[in-house]
Amino acid sequence: LSDRLTSVFSSLRSKGRLSDADIDATCREIRIALLEADVALPVVKTFVAQVKERARGVEVSQALNPAQQVVKIVNDELIEILGGETRRLRYAKTPPTVIMLAGLQGAGKTTLAGKLARWLRDQNHTPMLVAADLQRPNAVQQLQVMAERAGVAVYAPEPGNGVGDPIEVARQSIDHARRQQHDIVIIDTAGRLGIDQELMKQAADIRDAVSPDEVLFVVDAMIGQDAVSTAQAFMEGVGFDGVVLTKLDGDARGGAALSVRHITGKPIMFASTGEKLEDFDAFHPDRMASRILDMGDILTLIEQAQKTFDEAEAAKMAGKLTSGEGFTLEDFLEQMMMVQKMGPIKNLLGMMPGMGQMREQLNQVDDRDLDRIAAIIRSMTPGERQNPKMIDGSRRARIAKGSGVTVTEVNGLVTRFFDAQKMMKRMAGGMGIPGMPGGRK
Ligand code: GDP
Ligand code: MG
Questions:
Q1: Yes or no: is domain 310-427 CATH 1.10.260.30?
Q2: What is the pLDDT of residue 437?
Q3: What is the value of ipTM here, to two decimals?
């Protein structure tokens, strides 16, 4: 007996929660979306497992169907992971604040140095760029061009002195900045095409020489899966405090963001979106989450559905639905207006499970239609709105006159209302509110 009781209880409980089948089905889609966004496989696995775990305990929502609900959980989780403890730059108590850039060659460090300098200058700082990449022949000159464009100072070894020592240059630059009253120093370092020990050691030596307040790891969003090994190597070899994602103007879906964040736990602080100095912004976790998921339509739908669907209104309606009797013309009007507020979004409803037949209904209502319906209902007496059965022929004629429509139109509305009322009775209990995004199978 106690076994049977337990199973009854568990089936009762599971009714109010998202089912494993719902969660699994949606998570399969999510998994594909993440892999297509180039999130590294181990990260996808951990992340999806995390989402499943979290979705399992969640109550079935009034406003969303299960698939939407799982997508919402995924999106929220993504935003949280990507944005967890987002923070601003940390400035040193005694200037200069030292910011060191590290990353592979071509990641966008030198470009970023210029962008960051300009951005800081616009906030009334007096940044100075430091050329500690003495590896490539043109590296110093490239930084000088950047500095000039950004309108900031640059510290570089004298040309013609042979190959300088980047560690020495970095060390001296700090004293120089102090003397020249620059409050921020941005140190550009050398990268290699691949991870190599010499590069790591040089970066680590520069770090030790200048004790930066911030080491920023600069990573190209296009490197996709490789982001994991690269981030790991820099984490171990140099260590860093924050991440800058570059080349987000490309078509990369940005899986690297999730991989790096997941692997290193370090905040993504800035986003680089082009070659120009102004193509630069703080990192926005919500934008990145929807870019990675690439389910913009569904996310918009979810957002709209939730906004439109006020839980309190839902409860109020639901109460009337159990009988179907208390559903009045005023509720009818209110409901249509809610749907109307959803705008073009209502066309998407047909794509959602169980909402196919609703779309046809909704498509019959356009804005002008709704205005006429509203006019007709407003020409009724409160009694008529509460109890439409009393609207006989002479009342219909009066209402038509009062609202400037034909009696046929009034008849049409009343018929439509009774149809809706019937449908509500049929669906009562099982489906939430017909015509509302909360409708469930
Ligand atoms: P570094 O080797 O890390 O210093 O990389 P660079 O700053 O020299 O950048 C390498 C190339 O990528 C250059 O051609 C830059 O113009 C380009 N680049 C840097 N950041 C971006 C970006 O956000 N978007 C695009 N499209 N190109 C970028
Ligand atoms: Mg460079």
A1: yes
A2: 40
A3: 0.99
